[in-house]
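Look at a sample.

——
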Amino acid sequence: MALKVTQIRSHSGKTDRQKGTLVGLGLGRIGKSRLLEDTPAIRGMIDKVKHLVKVEEVAE
């Protein structure tokens, strides 16, 4: 299974750690999406920026 992660809010005014997490997920601007493998590490990163992203489960 994969996860489609889309940035829906700006990282402006957020901590450097949250900005770095978005970069680690391959995001960086509103509307950008990435298809990522569903792993515990990715889930943890998403949890740190859950207020900035939308997550959808996608069958591969």
Summary: Residues 2-58 form a domain with the Ribosomal Protein L30; Chain: A, fold (CATH 3.30.1390.20).
